[in-house]
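WARN retry 2 of 3 for item q-0093 after timeout on previous attempt; input resubmitted unchanged.
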Amino acid sequence: MSHISNEDLWKALINRLKNDWNEKYQDFGSIENIKHQTKFCKVLSKDISQTLNHNEILITWNTLHIYFKQNGFGISPQKKKLEVIKDYLGRDLLFHSQTKENKPLIKEEKKEIKSLSPISETLTEEDSFTLKNQTSNALNKDNSFARKSIYVAFGSLLLLLISSFWIYSQQNELSESELRMEKEKIIALIDRANALEFSLYAAVPNISDTIKLNKFYIPDSQNKKEIVRIISKNKAKGNILDTESSYRMLNKQAIIFDRISKSYAEVITLESWNLQWLHALDSTKYAEYKVVNEQRYTLQKHNDKWLILKNEYEGQATWFDE
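OK item q-0093 returned
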């Protein structure tokens, strides 16, 4: 099987799901508008493992959920997960690859025949036959040389890319002990960052400690700016956090490391946040933010210390008085 791009692999997966949809997944709406996407991803995760005769989960539903959210495998997907997708598609992938490769050849053949036809009309049948043979031989030699040149250039480029990737992966690969240690550092960082965020909300109207966020976020982090905005807004409105009923919780047992190297990591967490904002003057409710959701953290190392680059999540506050 020839190499297939990540984009074509995604298209092949979607085509496979379209073919299987009515039989297996029709309860989830349509492939263009999937209902209950989390449940669908859990079903698909099990289906992939069963198709490949594996008892363990080969691709988690969280990972599939991310793929469908971004409508593709992303910029730098894990190679092992792409191999699982390829194994799952099997013959569907082979057919997709062959179909794509054959189409340009047909167009090229038609173009070559069309370019020769006006010349042959002005010649005798014998001359035309001779000219066609000579032209065909010349074209074959030129095409053969061009193909060889392309193969050599492509092979050199591919070798360079493989070598560069190997060197990069060796430099960024973690040993088993390093991996365990870095995971512990990241979990502790996220937990401490969340604890600081909650304490800053609880301290409103005092906002002097927001500078402490720099210990956990990169300087221009949008998430850090959003935390400061929430604090400043509630101070300006004269609000305080009801600390007796508000809380936050990080489920450390449900943390998934989607990617991790010596300097970069992507982590999925399961968190509970309950923030009850009150008017300071009469203690009436101003707003409520109460969610249990998945959050995706992207982290980078700066000066040998993990910092949060961004944190993506879904959640909406309820406003009682704006």
